[in-house]
Predict the 3D structure of the following.
Amino acid sequence: MSPVHSQLAPTFRIRRRHASTTTVGLFPECPDVLGPSKEVSSSVPVADQRGSVSDQATADCPPASAQARLVGIARLAASSPPAETRRKSNQRPEYFVLPVKSILNRCDSNRVPFEWTINPYRGCEFACKYCYARYTHEYMELDGSEFEKKIYVKKDAAPLLAWDVAHKYSYSSEASSGARPDHIAIGTATDPYQPAEQEYGVTRSCLEELAKKEGLSVSIITKSNQIVRDIDVLQRISERSNLGIDITITTLRPGLTRLLEPRAPRPDLRLGAVKQLREAGLAVGLSASPLIPGITDRDGELEAVAAAGRDAGAQWFFSGVLFLMPSSAKQFLPFVREKFPRLAKQYEQWYAKNGYAPEEYRRKASDRVARIREQYGFRSRPWVETTRTTTCTQLSLTWNASAVTGVGERAHSCAAG
């Protein structure tokens, strides 16, 4: 039997509790596994068993002592065995089977329109230059640059999710005073339809479990046209629960897409997926997040994305301005200096010490999106219409955003699972 999927249901007990921004307290310290980071006084970088090298201190991920023990998700990741793969290319990432205790992860932030997240993988091969979720690899004592190089496949996802929904999910959300069910967002810190899904099928296995339930509220967000493979199970979910699908397109320019999102499918393929999903009777909208200042925000560009989405059948549209957490800025700012040198100074002024674009720019972007919705007849996302009004930070795989000071810290607990 595959090490990724198992028919055995978990026998341990999981208690519902608020998520923490750190994983240290979730697992006991393991005295037999040492952290991969080098000792501060040493000049020799130390590689862990997966070949990672961490030899520099950074503001968001300082090196630990060589004697520090791995705990939490870092300990689990360090002991994760390689996952078998049919791919032979030298450019492929490394795959590992990650043992986890839960698939349904609680989000306790009141700034986002959902209560639970499902991330079938940790890491994402699409390698989007701006991706905020790179920080999740730092929880595993890996550098954010390895987010697309080391992909962790969550083990036994289906039986874990079945248990989670049965014991943790609420059909009477506290946030709505019992008027609606909790909302589950799939793909908040990884793309659920990245190439790994073709081999390991973790996303599909989770959807199969959700299709057995009734009365759920679920959304999926992806940059991949691979989602059309699962139209059959998506239709089954839609028949019994509320389901919405977001397809992300940040620009229609193929060359720019390849630069910003090196391994994601072309924009035309994503638009084709919108059309197929709508023809299958599914609720589909378009995400144009993030709006990248000076790069994807030129006159008419966001409007062109919206028009193409409308023509493909998209029912809603949203976009939020680029938000850079420190681990993402560490990757994105050098990219801007190399590929867009004329913007380098502006980005340094805006993002070197702050994850948010200036408030005035964000306000103008929000007004622009509102005009686009009115012009093209888009509605709001259906699950957001039924929840509290919220303003939240752009998270590259997830939701609409006009950045609000302080939300970055709370976002950790929503996407790190």
Notes: Residues 121 and 303 are 33 Å apart (CA to CA). Residues 80-415 form a domain with the pyruvate-formate lyase- activating enzyme fold (CATH 3.80.30.30). The mean pLDDT is 80. The radius of gyration is 21 Å.
